[in-house]
Protein 1
Amino acid sequence: MQKSPSVSFQPFPLASSAEWSKEKLLPLFAAERTLEIGDEGLRSESAAGSQLLRWWFVESVDEADGHVAIFPAAGSIFLIPKAAVKPDVLKPFLSELRERLRPVAGR
């Protein structure tokens, strides 16, 4: 059986998040996260737990200079720093993700 495409990343580098630790937000925002593509949807896993986002809840994927943004419905965002994921892992992941979103886009 072929392994599902996934990426693991740390959304914000710990070194630049020193101010957040004062508010005890660092674990919430800077914890390592894994996104895995599956038939039912996009699974998000972190130290806080696991969540399955069904494909109809994932609205779009955008790329900017140094980041990829995945927008689930209801105003949330997965922000993936490109520097945190090897290009040979990120490119196939994004390709598969966009392919999965294409049939749902005509909702």
Protein 2
Amino acid sequence: MESLQQKLSGHEGLVFQSYNEGYVTEKKKARSIKGNFAAKETPFCGLYEDAKMVKGFYSEDGRCTERNILSHLEENYGITPGLLGCTLGAHTPSLDDLINDFRQRNNDGTRT
């Protein structure tokens, strides 16, 4: 998740926000976004444009991956992975991989 956030934060006009249901202070917002898209599983990614729901990337169908999100941004908004400082190679990690990596690096429970 952190990797995707870094890639998207460098592009003007894109805002990346993440919420963790495991934190009491973020649970309400995370569930609200998931509820708007009728998502049941985590991780989930909801794409908004001008405060309108545009596209959801669901764990339920296996499409909630960094590769799919970046591909969608490229196809629909002309935002190429190169502009974001990444490639869509065969070894692009899934959001599950990124989240697991984040948890391992922050196993003391602190936030970054």
